[in-house]
Amino acid sequence: MNRIFEKYISCKSCLKLFSILLFVLCTTVAFAQNEPRTILDFNKDWRFYLGDEAKAKIITFNDSDWRTLNLPHDWSIEGQFSKHHLSTTQEGALPTGIGWYRKAFTVSTSAKGKAVFIEFDGIYRNSEVWINGHSLGIRPYGYSSFRYELSTYLKFGREKNVLAVRVDNSAQPNSRWYTGSGIYRNVRLVTTSQIAVNQWGTFVTTPTVTSQKAVIALQTSIRKAVGRTSKGELPTIRLVSTILDAAGKEVATQTTQSVRLIDTLITVSQQVDVSNPILWSVEKPYLYKLVTRIYNQNRLEDRYETPLGIRSFKFDPATGFSLNGQPMKILGVCLHHDLGALGAAVNRRAMQRQLELLKAMGCNAIRTAHNPPAPEFLDLCDEMGFLVMDEAFDMWKKKKSKQDYGLTWDTWHKTDLEDMVRRDRNHPSIFIWSIGNEIREQFDSTGITIANELASIVKTLDTTRPVTSALTENIPDKNFIYRSGALDILGFNYKHEAYADFPKTFPNQVVLASETGSSLQTRGHYDMPSDSVRMWGKGGPTKFTDGNPDWTASAYDNEAAYWGSTHEQTWKVIKKLPHMAGLFIWTGFDYLGEPHPYPWPARSSYFGILDLAGFPKDVYYLYQSEWTNKPVLHIFPHWNWPKGKTVDVWAYYNQADEVELFLNDKSLGVQKKTGDELHVMWRVKYEPGTLKAVSRKNGREVLIRTMSTAGKPAKIQLIADRTALNADGKDLSFITVNVLDEQGNLIPDANHLITFSVNGGGTLVGVDNGYQASLESFKANYRKVYNGKCLAIIQTNEKAGRIRVKATSEGLQGAEIELVSQ
Length: 822
Ligand code: GAL
Description:
It holds the Pfam family Glyco_hydro_2. By secondary structure, the chain is mainly beta.
């Protein structure tokens, strides 16, 4: 597709190629003339300047000494942590400020008469975009997707066009978590003819779904940028909508003849039936595709694709949620948008890895806390089978941080909310719209008017999904958003003690736990006794000096923020209450910012089930044992302690009725979960050696796990999540680095400095170790392991080839791994 597009647009650097590839391009050009719509990845070769430069919008501005880079780009993640940055530790303590991006390109004369748009999936924040010196618009909200039409300002032929983008993330603080800064999501250049499907112009719903038949309702919004024909007539088009199955076979089609384009925008409704539909579900996320074609006489004016999943779902106040008629619990996590060491810069593979790890844990739903995600994230959820609560805002008019979105609320909230719903409403994964998180207007009467306004904005665009808002106030009379009556579903954050009474407190209301937990853990760190719980805040420690001097939290599930609970406390309750439709745990992964309860140098959160590098904390296996059918037996902590110390050994297990623990082949007894227990524990006097756990069902062994005392650190081990990669300049391999003893046991407290070198077709783009108070740069070519582990992220170049990754450290045997990029 990109190559085709070079007929219309050729980037400066592509010009040289143009003459070399003349033959190839000629053939492509002929083909391109019949292409009604072209979508060009417009991420490459931008110039970037960190700082303000008023003249940079002018076309003749000389940017030759600016840095050249590819988007998506987040300049904050490239910086160093400092407590002197304007962005607080709440926001990750990385630099913010103002930045400029410029891109020069030429447009072939054959694009004259076409409609050309630049599409941004998201710029954090306060962006203004210019084409050839003309301002196209501003966009304050950093999470909205938007496009501008360039057509009338473009120059054709050899003349240069320049896009300039100013990004202003200097007003701080404007968030309660790390946001990133810059054009951190994808950019495309889209060319259509003057009669085309409008932006996000299809809307597909499935009003009737049975195993015999699905009725598919289609609405297509068609944009006409031309007036009358040469004969003075209004253009008349034919709309053909075709449903293809996953193999690309046509299963239904509907043609509407003679549509007169009386206005610049008209909407055409159609309906088709699909017989014996294969339903979309979280276990089997089957996707159809809608192909929309617009013909003017016999000329194809547009061809547009929309993914389609056929499914039905229902919420019931007494029995919770069902998908395609099957009752199920929503087993969800909340996620912020950062990708650890990659920051906010969107990368499809990095998001896919996160979702793979969550899927393997049994998670089936995501809440996009607290803003619309990147569109690719939703594509992945469609493809991988996750339900999504798509959330618009963390605040309404009443601010949470001094400089946040509340300041622009009056002017922008309608546009931002409408754009979110229009952009996202075709994703089968999305099943709830959330209009806000812990909104301050809960507590005064403005909550009534605003909630009603927002719900009606959503309903105007989509009535097929319920609207919720994540609430904290669970006394009905005191909650003005609840009293507005605008919510179809009541989402409550925390308050697990109140869940059982919800049917009485909120009769006939659908209720779910929109946020739970906020338990605190550092991977591989254990505070004992494990059965005493440290609740930070009211009733527990209030000063961070009451915590650990190395800013760690305990990875036994025994530490939490006072407004939350341990993982077990909440899951135990929800599991048993059918009226609780499900939960969204705070959070799936640690994220940058909000390092509660610690101040600087802590700079990322402790709430994740997996750490910032994506390494599971022990509690991951609690959920895996409860939420999947995989046999699980997980024992922890590690087995390196001072001799004689009393150590609590925990096991999460399933598909067994007991676990027996042995130390150096001596039985320490059999334990069984009783009542609503979710783990078993042995209190053991430590001696070095080997712990062995055996789970049994009806006396037959199910699983065996062993763990031995590690000796001296001896060697580095590298494990790549994928060794065969795409040479597309985007694909990633996530390489786990372990420090082991001679026998291959992980050294549980190793903190060696590892240095990386990468040769061949790839680049090191990020390093991390998941430690919340590490101040090392994510972009360095070295990293200390933390509790035995660190991570290196390798990105392919566009040139195929082998990639050799080498890791060395003083006093350890180094390691090498080979990746193949093609
Ligand atoms: C919630 C809030 C989240 C996060 C969390 C930390 O109250 O909705 O955004 O701040 O607390 O525990």
